[in-house]
């Protein structure tokens, strides 16, 4: 449950940061480190505290306790609070729209107010070029497509050379195809420039695709924090496992140090003899075989997912519902009786929560 530490070379450091709103604890003792140029994704259900965390780092909210340090400077802590505009942090928020009455170039120049005019012009031109929107410099926001607006918003955020970029669901207003390409371009650009960024998203696929470090949040806490691959394949909790993508659970009881299930015995370190537990695995960990060669099950239905087909199966022993992914074919796989094998290396065993033990 305790989040794994992030890199030793810490550019942004949060130390036991908490924030309450009346009776609601929006954030409880959040700690992590982020290295320079790294991308952290915050993923979690609505209300888990993602936006509050960004707002505390941005400086539009104050923590009740704890410390926030960026580039060696304490931004918030006991007796210390740096105003948002003095933090050197850029924003790309869903509702942080471009100024409609300013041209693209003026929007980008906005964060550079006070810089000498020649320097300002050069920086605007540079950052528009980097974001691939030089040709749009004289247009106004209403003359831009959704993807172009996002690129301009990114250029505006990057113009003052922020030490950290905060992004709250920045791609969620774009439709799927555009979202993927704008996201890929944005992330490539951030990596090229080497700016550290925190991205809030509801979308596990987005978080897995872009993050160097991925934090799954729940009820004001970081439930799990690691690189996306580790988190997806070896989640520390059942909540994190489920949040990151589909999977099945198979209930059983611990006997002789292993969880005993109809699909095999799986090591259950740390769990007590006789304890109720569940095996969790991803759809790709199951394979079909002859009913005589594996655990017999029935295919109840097939869900067509495009490249893949997800079979929904019911185990004959215990009647548990399981999911299995196969490359899709032209004809759907008909319902019927099959055997199932489970790759033991792809199974995680967790103590059963009360609702999963039955
Ligand atoms: N200004 C506020 N006053 C009172 N409660 C607040 C305030 N801001 C946030 N909260 C509460 O704090 C908790 C965390 O809210 P937050 O907006 O950080 O969640 P979130 O994970 O960003 O949610 P979403 O994904 O829906 O944006 C919620 O219970 C919310 O109702």
From TrEMBL:
Enzyme class: hydrolase
UniProt domain ABC transporter: residue ranges: 12-244
Protein EC: 3.6.3.-
UniProtKB keywords: ATP-binding, Cell membrane, Hydrolase, Ion transport, Iron, Iron transport, Membrane, Nucleotide-binding, Transport
Pfam family, one: ABC_tran
Protein's UniProt keywords contain Ion transport: yes
SUPFAM superfamilies: MOP-like, P-loop containing nucleoside triphosphate hydrolases
The species this protein was found in: Rhodobacter capsulatus (strain ATCC BAA-309 / NBRC 16581 / SB1003)
Lineage: Bacteria, Pseudomonadati, Pseudomonadota, Alphaproteobacteria, Rhodobacterales
Name of the protein this chain belongs to: ABC transporter, ATP-binding/periplasmic substrate-binding protein
Keyword hit for NADP: no
GO cellular component, one term: ATP-binding cassette (ABC) transporter complex
Gene Ontology MF terms in the entry: ABC-type ferric iron transporter activity; ATP binding; ATP hydrolysis activity
Gene Ontology terms: biological process: quaternary ammonium group transport
């Amino acid at each position: 449950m305790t989040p794994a530490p992030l890199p030793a070379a810490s550019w942004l450091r949060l130390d036991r940061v908490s924030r309450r709103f009346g009776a609601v604890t929006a954030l409880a003792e959040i700690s992590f480190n982020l290295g320079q140029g790294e991308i952290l994704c915050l993923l979690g259900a609505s209300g888990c505290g993602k936006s509050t965390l960004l707002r505390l780092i941005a400086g539009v909210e104050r923590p009740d306790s704890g410390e926030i340090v960026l580039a060696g400077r304490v931004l918030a802590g006991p007796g210390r609070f740096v105003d948002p505009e003095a933090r050197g942090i850029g924003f790309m928020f869903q509702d942080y729209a471009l100024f409609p009455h300013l041209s693209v170039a003026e929007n980008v120049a906005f964060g550079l107010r006070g810089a000498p005019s020649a320097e300002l012009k050069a920086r605007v031109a540079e950052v528009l070029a980097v974001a691939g929107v030089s040709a749009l410099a004289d247009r106004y926001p209403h003359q831009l497509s959704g993807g172009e607006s996002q690129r301009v918003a990114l250029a505006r955020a990057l113009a003052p050379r922020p030490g950290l970029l905060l992004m709250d669901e920045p791609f969620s207003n774009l439709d799927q195809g555009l979202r993927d390409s704008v996201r890929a371009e944005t992330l490539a650009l951030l990596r090229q420039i080497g700016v550290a960024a925190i991205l809030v998203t509801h979308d596990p696929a987005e978080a897995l695709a872009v993050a160097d470090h991925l934090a799954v949040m729940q009820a004001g806490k970081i439930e799990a924090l690691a690189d996306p691959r580790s988190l997806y394949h070896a989640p520390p909790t059942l909540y994190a496992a489920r949040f990151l993508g589909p999977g099945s659970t198979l209930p059983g009881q611990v006997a002789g140090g292993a969880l005993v299930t109809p699909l095999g015995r799986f090591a259950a370190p740390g769990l007590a003899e006789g304890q109720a537990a569940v095996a969790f695995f991803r759809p790709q960990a199951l394979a079909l075989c002859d009913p005589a060669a594996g655990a017999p099950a029935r295919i109840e239905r097939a869900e067509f997912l495009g490249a893949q087909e997800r079979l929904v199966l019911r185990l004959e022993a215990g009647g548990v519902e399981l999911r299995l992914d196969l490359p899709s074919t032209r004809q759907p796989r008909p319902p019927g009786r099959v055997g199932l094998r489970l790759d033991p290396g792809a199974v995680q065993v967790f103590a059963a929560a009360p609702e999963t033990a039955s």
